[in-house]
Amino acid sequence: MEEGQGVRDAGLRAYWRANKVLIAILLVIWALVSLVFSILLAEPLYQIRVGSLPMSFWWAQQGSMVVFVLLIFFYAWFMDRLDEKYDVHEDRPGRPAQPTAPGGGDGGGEQ
Amino acid sequence: MSVEAWTYVTVGVTFAAYLYIGYLNRVKDTGGFYVAGRGVPAVFNGAAVGADWMSAASFISMAGLISFMGYDGTVYLMGWTGGYVLLALLLAPYLRKYGKYTIPDFVGDRYYSSTARVVAAFCAIFVSLTYVAGQMRGVGIVFSRFLNVPIEVGVIIGMAIVSFFAVLGGMKGITWTQVAQYSVLIVAYLIPAVAIAWVLTGNPIPQLSFTFSDIVPRLNEIQTDLGFTEYTQPFSAKPMLDVFCITLALMAGTAGLPHILVRFYTVPSVRSARYSAAWALLFIALLYTTAPALAAFARYNLIDSLHGKTLEEINEYQWVQSWQATGLLSFEDKNGDGKIELTPDTATSEMSVDRDIIVLSTPEVARLAPWVIALVAAGGLAAALSTAAGLLLVISSSIAHDIYDRLINPDASEAKRLMVGRVMIFLAVIVAGIFGIYPPGFVAQVVAFAFGLAAASFFPVILLGIFDSRTNRQGAIWGMVVGIGFTGLYIIGNKFFGMPAWFLGISSEGIGTIGMILNLIVTFVVSRLTPPPPIEIRRMVEEVRVPRGAGASTSH
């Protein structure tokens, strides 16, 4: 019993660590495209072109937002895998909850 | 059919649809009223977040602001989208796992303190009130422009519609009307943008024609000829440090806005909370990547068709006449040379253009059919109403749930709680309406206040609540007090009492970044100088980090 709990705790700690590493990597990209490319490096990147726009201007008004969307989809997708790997995923992901599932407040189907 | 007739039809039909959806989704319990019974699928929650998010300011004023700010308009573009990355990675999944009704619920439970709960409830009310003020005004402006109805009457019509579906359906009614409102507003935004891109560049996709056509280089050239800086020149409106701080404050503020955070309580699972954040940003980015294209096109078109012409030539444009009538566009031949000239100096410039024109006049400028103009009116109303509804729910839940249910009358019956919730949302609508009729300030400006305060209060407290189990009650309360105190005093002093922007020249819009950093430092340090939180709180923190079991936490 004690031992099983310990193994489980170690698994949860590893899951949380993996999650934090992933978040850190994605936030570095997030900061790079927005705060660095679009603001701090606005002047140097101004000379390079993307299409007919200066590159820093393109990052500031187009590119950064596209990257933001991709980052969140990637995070959601990757976390599905992490949840499975560390066996912390929810029951039947993506499908409606089983009628046996607990949860008195789940009034989604009422009316 | 005339524009006005079309507008009556479009606004009438969309409003009838909102009322019908609101009626279908009326609720009988507090779970439905506050979190839509946690039955909203990820994609639809994403659309609802989009509508909740994109306010009258985003829809009507943002492209105009960018058009006047050029490069520096990015503070709004990145600031109001980048926050979703923080939200999706750092807050939303864990709040869903925690799974109660409001943000003050989380703050109160995590910091085992009624004081923290009350402070958070007041912050939520304050942030939402500042934000909602602009929304009702937006409703009034659209009504007065498109239907020649006095602003006050427009505001009252908007109040009636919102109170119907919000009182009856609470979060559930609001969510499903927001899904409809998102559809209306995005179509209304994209059609004119696609049309003007097509007319000016021959490429119908605004994002692509913005990047690849020669409109922006030509606009740069014209601007330089007229004595302006290049349109794409960075930091012509604000210094770099200020742009940096405003962007970061808007990002953290976005992630900390209670009316967005509570939306993630309404989905069935942690997994769907992650995906709905992704869908939300996709839906938002659709408008936010179009706005800068629209801004540049409209500016180019405005200068190109008006500058250097005589008054007679200008008045041949139908849209010029109709916008002059509203006072948002005016001309004065100051130097008497018979030509209207645009110059950087407002004292000599012979054109005065209100920013809101950029979006509102595009369909007429691009000579689109009258029904498109009517659709833009409906889109502006959808944007304003949907955001107002989400904010009103936060205001009412902060009073009815966090203060009344939890503190004043914890033994109240379910029926009584629901009744208090409905009454509070109705009162909140009235307060918002009064703000709409007697507006406290310029729409987008007012909205920016809310962000600084959210950045300096909720974002750090929730973040540390999840990621640092050592953070305790004392740390959180002091962090919030210092963060809000500093940011609030700086903004109020700077905006209303002529206090200079003494902190490194950072404007009141960007000071939330500093408030947030102060909050983080104070929370972290005070937590480590005072006793650790009790063991059950540490267990709770470990619990919210793991997705499994989110279904179980739907019971309250």
Widest beta sheet: strand line-up of chain B: 1-2
- Which protein chains make the most extensive interface, counting residues with beta carbons within 8 Å of the other chain's beta carbons? A-B, 60 and 74 residues
Distance between the ends of chain A: 45 Å
| Proportion of beta-strand residues of chain B | under 5%
> What is the total number of structural domains of chain A?
1
What would your notes on this structure say?
The complex is a heterodimer of chains A (111) and B (556). Chain A is mainly alpha-helical. Chain A has one domain. Chain A starts with a helix and ends in a 26-residue tail after the last helix. With 556 residues, chain B is mainly alpha-helical. Chain B has a single domain, classed as Sodium/glucose cotransporter (Up-down Bundle). Helix content of chain B is 74%, strand content 1%. Chain B contains 24 helices and 2 strands. The longest helix of chain B is centred in the N-terminal third of the chain and has 51 residues. The termini of chain B are far apart.
Blueprint of the fold:
The complex is a heterodimer of chains A (111) and B (556).
Chain A: H1 2-40, E1 49-50, E2 53-54, H2 55-85
Chain B: H1 3-24, H2 30-35, H3 42-53, H4 56-69, H5 74-98, H6 103-110, H7 114-147, H8 151-201, H9 206-212, H10 215-225, H11 240-256, H12 258-261, H13 270-288, H14 290-306, H15 311-315, H16 318-326, E1 329-331, E2 351-353, H17 357-365, H18 370-408, H19 414-437, H20 443-456, H21 458-467, H22 473-496, H23 511-529, H24 535-544
Antiparallel strand pairs in B: 1-2
Helix pairs in contact in B: 1-8, 1-18, 3-8, 3-13, 3-18, 4-14, 4-17, 4-18, 5-11, 5-13, 6-7, 6-21, 7-8, 7-18, 7-19, 7-20, 8-14, 8-17, 8-18, 8-19, 9-14, 10-14, 11-20, 11-21, 11-23, 14-17, 17-18, 18-19, 20-22, 20-23, 21-23, 22-23
Can you give me a brief rundown of this structure?
Chain A has helices spanning 2-40, 55-85, and strands spanning 49-50, 53-54.
